[in-house]
Design brief:
about 30% helix; alpha/beta; DNA polymerase, domain 1; two-stranded parallel ribbon; 10 helices; TIM Barrel; 10-stranded mixed β-sheet; binds iron/sulfur cluster
């Protein structure tokens, strides 16, 4: 859809409304020859009442509901599978209109009222981080803003629970799909009603994308998946380091901060014998010293090769704590991430569209 005009291809395909802005819904009703107020009605049913079908829209006449159903559908995603972890985490497998698959995760926290949705921004991923199951899938395509927003709406419709936080940490590198991701953030804020401060965009370090996001001046949290403080290790774990070196990346964070004034989150995966040494903890502390940030340590969640062997080992609790103590000498708050959904492969780095494997 361009400039709020409806563009659909192929012609026979129904237009998905969940994920459209009010202006886009107005363009849709205009094209159908309907009065403008119908767009507001559709908007309320989709975003406030989480309607899953036109049948539920009881203040629209039966004829109109039928007409709408011929031309449009509610969501663009078809739920293919749902797995629920013993900690309550829900992992969804969604089919897109072209049958490609993506995963999204809903996380609940006992100490927090609001729920967090982790959304995918691409089918597969080209970055190929060495510990990540999505990277092994390779890159297939970018998701549209509608497909990103409809992950949140589909989760709300299925679970009956309001999503309060959205993290772009599912499949794909959001800042290699920057324009659609930015459009989806605006839609989450303006259509779905999620506060910008409750949205986190996580990047492996795509410098042009960080600069583009800074220009947009939306109050989201930026998370950098740093994963190693030295070039040699980072090139192995996050291969895109060859294109975007660490020093320039840190400079882009400072630029981002000078515009946004928001605290950045530094994500750091702890891989035994690879990224968890005392020297690396000290180097990390030094690297981020002049950046306003929190450090979030992620003990490695197992991902397996075809013969079922894990690619890395997780460091012991003692090693994790030693690393956290040394890194906190930077004066930053250092936390060790709470594990969510590891038993259903829904944790960080584990999403790979294969259930029960
Ligand atoms: S961690 Fe993120 S950026 Fe890296 S391969 Fe996985 S999905 Fe892509």
């Amino acid at each position: 859809m361009e400039g709020n005009k409806i563009s659909q291809s192929p012609k026979s395909e129904k237009l998905a409304l969940s994920g459209l802005s009010l202006a886009e819904l107005e363009a849709f009703v205009k094209e159908m020859g309907l009065p403008k107020f119908r767009a507001k009605q559709l908007h309320t049913w989709i975003y406030s009442k989480w309607a899953g079908s036109f049948e539920q829209m009881t203040d629209l006449g039966a004829d109109l509901r039928l007409k709408l159903a011929e031309r449009a559908k509610i969501g663009s995603l078809e739920q293919k599978h749902l797995e629920v972890s013993k900690d309550g985490t829900r992992k969804y497998l969604f089919a897109l209109p072209d049958k490609k698959l993506v995963e999204s995760v809903l996380m609940t926290f006992q100490d927090r009222d609001s729920l967090s949705a982790c959304v995918s921004s691409q089918v597969g991923c080209a970055v190929g981080c060495s510990f990540c199951a999505t990277g092994y899938l390779g890159f297939k395509r970018n998701l549209s803003s509608t497909e990103i927003v409809d992950q949140v709406m589909s989760i709300q419709r299925e679970s009956g629970k309001r999503v309060g936080n959205v993290v772009y940490m599912g499949q794909g590198e959001p800042l290699l799909n920057t324009e659609n991701v930015i459009e989806s953030i605006h839609k989450l804020i303006e259509q779905v009603g999620i506060g910008g401060r409750h949205i986190t965009v996580s990047t492996s370090g795509i410098i042009p994308g960080i600069r583009r996001l800074a220009k947009e001046k939306i109050p989201v949290t930026l998370a950098l998946s740093l994963h190693a403080p030295d070039t040699m290790t980072r090139e192995e774990v996050v291969p895109i380091t060859k294109q975007y070196p660490i020093a320039e990346l840190m400079e882009s964070l400072r630029e981002y901060q000078s515009v946004s004034n928001r605290r950045i989150t530094i994500e750091y995966v702890l891989l035994a014998g690879v990224t968890d040494s005392a020297d690396q903890a000290r180097e990390l502390a030094e690297l981020v010293r002049d950046i306003n940030c929190n450090i979030n340590l992620i003990p490695y969640n197992p991902t397996f090769d075809e013969s079922g062997v894990a690619y890395y080992d997780r460091p012991s609790i003692d090693v994790q704590r030693r690393f956290a103590n040394l890194a906190s000498r930077s004066g930053k708050t250092v936390t060790i991430r709470l594990e969510r959904g590891t038993d259903i492969n829904a944790a960080c780095g584990q999403l790979h569209n294969a259930y029960g494997k």
